[in-house]
Fold this protein.
Amino acid sequence: MNKNKSNEVESTNNLDGIKLSTIFSGIKKPFKNKDDLLLIQLDEGSAIAGVFTKSLTASAPVIHSKNNLISSEKPSVRAIIVNSGNANAFTGHLGEKTVDIVTDFLSNKINCNPHEVFMASTGVIGEVLNPELIINGLKGMNSNHETNWLKAADTIRTTDTFSKISSRKCLIDDVEVDIIGIAKGSGMIAPNMATMLGFIFTNANISSDILQQLLQKANEKSFNSITVDSDTSTSDTVLFASTRKAKHHQIKNVSEKRLNNFKENLNSLMLDLAKLIVKDGEGASKFITINISGASSKKAAQKIGFSIANSPLVKTAIAGEDANWGRIIMAIGKSGERADRDKIKIYIGDELVTNNGMKAENYSEIIATKHLQEKEIIISADVGVGKSRATVYTCDLTHEYISINADYRS
Amino acid sequence: MNKNKSNEVESTNNLDGIKLSTIFSGIKKPFKNKDDLLLIQLDEGSAIAGVFTKSLTASAPVIHSKNNLISSEKPSVRAIIVNSGNANAFTGHLGEKTVDIVTDFLSNKINCNPHEVFMASTGVIGEVLNPELIINGLKGMNSNHETNWLKAADTIRTTDTFSKISSRKCLIDDVEVDIIGIAKGSGMIAPNMATMLGFIFTNANISSDILQQLLQKANEKSFNSITVDSDTSTSDTVLFASTRKAKHHQIKNVSEKRLNNFKENLNSLMLDLAKLIVKDGEGASKFITINISGASSKKAAQKIGFSIANSPLVKTAIAGEDANWGRIIMAIGKSGERADRDKIKIYIGDELVTNNGMKAENYSEIIATKHLQEKEIIISADVGVGKSRATVYTCDLTHEYISINADYRS
């Protein structure tokens, strides 16, 4: 796949009230010669929201950041520490201790409440993360901050083959507002080294409760609509913070029409980042969009979409450019959601494959196969029982995925 | 993997009251030079039970056989027709018509109720199955039946690399009773060509309602406890029939102690067949047993087991003989079932890997890796919240799986 860096963002693009610093702290293996610790500092008054992995074996930093959000009615943020190389997951009480030591140190240093310091870690599971490495790293950071978002995105990479960054300019009232986001993840696919992390920032004057609602909604259609191999990390974290410095009137309600342009831009920025993660899926050679319609509910549509997207048989057929549509029928059938066999319409690209409970009369396998030879594949299915829709994104399953994951640590 | 044929059964082993016939009918491609149609005839008075795929896009033969069972209070059977080469799935009303024509023809020929004729088909999805091929096949079958179970098992193969057959002799009261079973499937993994089918026969004098209860219970611990790649076929069918010719007193109740020896033997025979299917999993190089204990319920234990068994990351790590236990933690976490992080005990073989919410103090990666270099892998996990257990079986995920499934039809 064309792994082009989507650097729509000038790497030194600034967002007033946010300072970025990176350093090599020694958590990663030194030969990688790349920073592994990112500190994001925000001015006083910054609001924050977050969504996290649903894993029941969530990492210590996830538990800490979640607690920050629920322990305050109006969550605020002064710092986010992100390290790559060690996930601090399944490290027992030692894992929690590391988070406490680091966040206490930093809240003392910058003189804020410990609940205003968030943390996210990605890397190996089950290895103790030494807090001293992080503290020494924080001490050694250059106080002459250059706000280099590309360097920040680069620092949080693990198996990612490129940095993931996206930005938007939009309007609230007549005031120009910025949104910048960085992410990491080669899919949610290698929790020992490839958690999905996302950090999104804006200067919009929006309170934390409205940020939270905006984030959850945008998250459903972006990071929660992608899959590489169905595996879920212990560390997935998306934080969304606002400096509130933009000069428009404050937003009082999430449904105000003044927010429409901002919402559109936030949604498309997060979808951008999510798609970049899929494109960087381990071993991926094709990007696959799966559109489900005619489902009995939104949730059913998404479940059917993921049943197709996660099917190894569908993913290998697409890797082999084989219009083996029986596997799509199988995946719809195994989802457990309602579908009317005799009304299911499957399309590969624009080619109608099935109709009236069987192969469509004019179906051309040649046309379908031609579409599968492209790099961006679209599979659509109307399951014929309702009006609900969902779109999910995935990649194909190739020999390279096996090579990366069977041989990874050796 | 050592794909040895488990021919504990003499291929001409007989079960009084059952006649087998096979023929090449032309449904399969002729160059395969192998029979593709099996007819099993049973004497009057034979009882039958069945379990089927839960797919909502089930094939026409599945729908027909299910209807047979529910349309009679005491289901009986005179014939089972099985073809390989075409699944007759997603073939709309034409699929149902084919089943009707074939079962009507046969019920007329052998003078029985159409509800006593069962059918199962496996092969390509979405291609119309021509009933004339089957009828001509049935007409051409040799009336001089030799009861060759091995040949029967061979006829129903598709991508299977060996025939699957198992038998038991057991006691009810003091009377010797036979059980014979055949199966096909290289996992539930390639619904276009590798549905899971199983046919089990006994001479025990057991009525259909008790057969049904015995089958469902044994099925939970055998065919419902295996996975190759999480994909479910449109055609999975297991039928269990009894000639009732054995001379013990009739069984009145499924909980009679007189049935204990029979139950044990039925369970172990079905587990045998299920394991043979996993061992024949496409591209499989290792057979993996996953034991879950300490779960909050039986269902939770099975869900956690399948979450591990279906994780591409776990399966590729095992293929790579890499003791990457973080992936097992991830899979437990993503199952959505309760687990106490600080009480989870994971074992690779006999080696304790985790304890107290982190890597066990004396854990030796060398010992764990040594176990992973074997052909039969055992992963155990106590999740520390209850007393329920489950065992599931799977195989690893290798380059060969990708080759078989990405390149299959080409």
In short: Residues 1-12, 188-193 of chain A have pLDDT under 50 and may be disordered. The first helix of chain A runs from residue 60 to 70.
